[in-house]
Design brief:
The protein is mostly helical. Helix content is 49%, strand content 0%.
C-alpha cells in the first residue's frame, strides 16, 4: 500500500501572510542605493555653491523639523 504524499497547498494557512514581490520591487531600491552610494563615495569635482543662501536656510529648516 503506497504512502500518501502531502502536496503543497496554493492557499496560505489561516493566520499566515504570503508575500510575493515582482522583480522590480527588489531591483529598483537596490539600484537607487547603489547610485546614492556611488555619489557619496566619489563626489568628483564638488565645489561650494555660490547661489542664493535662501536654499541653504530652507534645507537647514527642513533638517531641523525632521530632527524633532
Amino acid at each position: 500500500m503506497p504512502a500518501r504524499t502531502h502536496t503543497r497547498s496554493t492557499t496560505p494557512a489561516p493566520g499566515s501572510v504570503e508575500v510575493r514581490l515582482p522583480w522590480w520591487a527588489v531591483a529598483l531600491p537596490a539600484l537607487a542605493f547603489a547610485a546614492l552610494l556611488l555619489l557619496i563615495v566619489g563626489p568628483g569635482e564638488a565645489r561650494a555653491s555660490t547661489g542664493d543662501p535662501a536654499l541653504g536656510r530652507l534645507l537647514a529648516q527642513i533638517m531641523d523639523l525632521l530632527s524633532r
